Amino acid sequence: MAYKIILASASPRRKELLEQVGAEFEIIPAVGEEIITDSRPQQAVLGLSAQKAAEVAAKVQGDAIVLGADTVVAFGDKILGKPKDEMDAEQMLSMLSGNTHSVYTGVSIVVKQSGQSRAYSFYEETEVTMYPLSKQQILSYIRTGEPMDKAGSYGIQGRGALFIEKIQGDYNNVVGLPIARVFRTIEEACGLSVMA
User: Fold this and answer.
1) Residue 115 burial (CB < 10 Å; 0-12/13-18/19+)?
2) Residue 155: alpha-carbon gap to chain centroid
3) Helices (DSSP H) in 82-124: which residue ranges?
4) pTM confidence score
5) How far is CA 88 from CA 105, 148, 153, 158, in A?
6) Active-site residues: which are they?
7) What is the pLDDT of residue 59?
8) More confidently predicted of 78 and 128
9) Are 69 and 107 in contact (CB under 8 A)?
10) C-alpha distance from residue 37 to each of 50, 78, 89, 126 (Å)
11) Scanning 15, 59, 134, 189, which has its CA 20 to 30 A from the CA of 9?
């Protein structure tokens, strides 16, 4: 049985990761307000990804796999979302400079089949260590505009890569989607082979 995969996100990075592995999919972004219901980053991303997947799954007719995801950066117990402005971006990058932080992506997959829905959720954690950054490096990076739509104020797949000393875990998770685990979960849930 062929399923259509629907990405419940307008993220260009998630779109690129799905294209990279040759997935056939369409994009129907969730538009509801994101409501964080838990201060723990693991639970926050699970809740946000579930909200996105459920919203879009409710709109979709027929058999489909709806994929919702949300990524946050956490330093200690503090969740770092997208910066509100350049000053916020500077504060985040100063905090991350020379330290190790975690990137969490929550994934929710809703499988719609024969009028029934099943949901699967998990989160992935990757630890990222940044080199110490000077104030000038931080301000120069902010002037590029790249940090302004990124959780934690940096993009590992862009110029922010210059700041990363090491990562422990899935690189793609930091970009925004732990793609291998997503497709393994879909394979187990639907009995589909990704490489078929």
Assistant:
1) exposed
2) 12
3) 86-96
4) 0.90
5) 22, 9, 9, 20
6) 70
7) 92
8) 128
9) yes
10) 12, 14, 24, 22
11) 189
